[in-house]
Amino acid sequence: MNGKPLQLAERVAIVTGSTRGIGRMVALRFAREGAAVVVNGLDAAPVAATVEEIRRAGGRAAGCVGDVGRKEVAHRLVDVALGELGGLHIVVNNAGISGTARLADLTEDAFDAELRVNLRAPFLLAQAAAGRAFIPQNYGRIINVTSHAAFRGAPQKTAYAASKMGVIGMTLSWANELLKHKITVNCVAPAAWTDMMESLPDERRATLQESFTHGSVLQRLPLPEDVADSFVFLASDAAAFLTGQVLQASGQPMHLL
Q1: What gap in Å lies between CA 226 and CA 220, rounded to an integer?
Q2: Which of 30, 123, 151, 160 is catalytic?
Q3: How many CB atoms lie within 10 A of CB 56?
Q4: Per DSSP, which regions of the chain are E strands?
Q5: Is residue 186 a contact partner of residue 239, using CB atoms and an 8 Å limit?
Q6: 160: annotated active-site residue
Q7: Is 256's pLDDT higher than 60?
Q8: Cβ pair 29, 229 in contact under 8 A
Q9: Are 12 and 79 in contact (CB under 8 A)?
Q10: What is the per-residue pLDDT across 152-190, written as a single tens digit (0 to 9) for each?
Q11: CATH 3.60.20.10 at 12-247, yes or no
Q12: Where exactly are the structural domains of the chain?
């Protein structure tokens, strides 16, 4: 721990999809700032490894393995936060999937699968957290994750772009509805190079590397740790006056079109 005041002391957070990439780094940064964290993923081993990493560093964490697109998993996440960590103050809806298919080839099953994880899952967890914790205690932070694909579209990403634009719509709706309960709802559109991108085809990977490097103020590949502080800020009391915002944590100028 460093000598400065911890921004998330005595807070409990759920971070979905927090065993790799941006989600993992957000969970680690939250813990470093004093929050107890519920770590989530589909597989038990990486969930346990992330929980152990937080505990070894002196933080508090608990794991919850499960598919966040299922209602019972959303409620189990809240159960773990309340039962094992003693409360719930922050939800980060980070888990997501992205397929690639031409419009002519995109199947209904593939379309539905992306919307289930990227759009339905944030709804289910936000609903459970708001109803069981945030509204009764008159306090909460909901941080959703969108994508630049929501603003600009992306070739062969019909379902992904649609789901991420839907996340923005839900963010704005919840921000208005939950204002009276002192619950802020914001959205982050991050850009970071994660291990998942290493599995892309060579040509696509090279194009993205070029775009990420030369399109960024950092003039290098942005990493998960470069965007994690944006989540800490929105989860903290420093952002108490912000709600219904979309923060483009990309190192690039904002593009509306």
Answers
A1: 11
A2: 160
A3: 8
A4: 12-15, 36-41, 61-65, 90-93, 140-145, 183-188, 246-247
A5: yes
A6: yes
A7: no
A8: yes
A9: no
A10: 888 888 999 999 999 999 999 999 999 999 999 999 998
A11: no
A12: 12-247
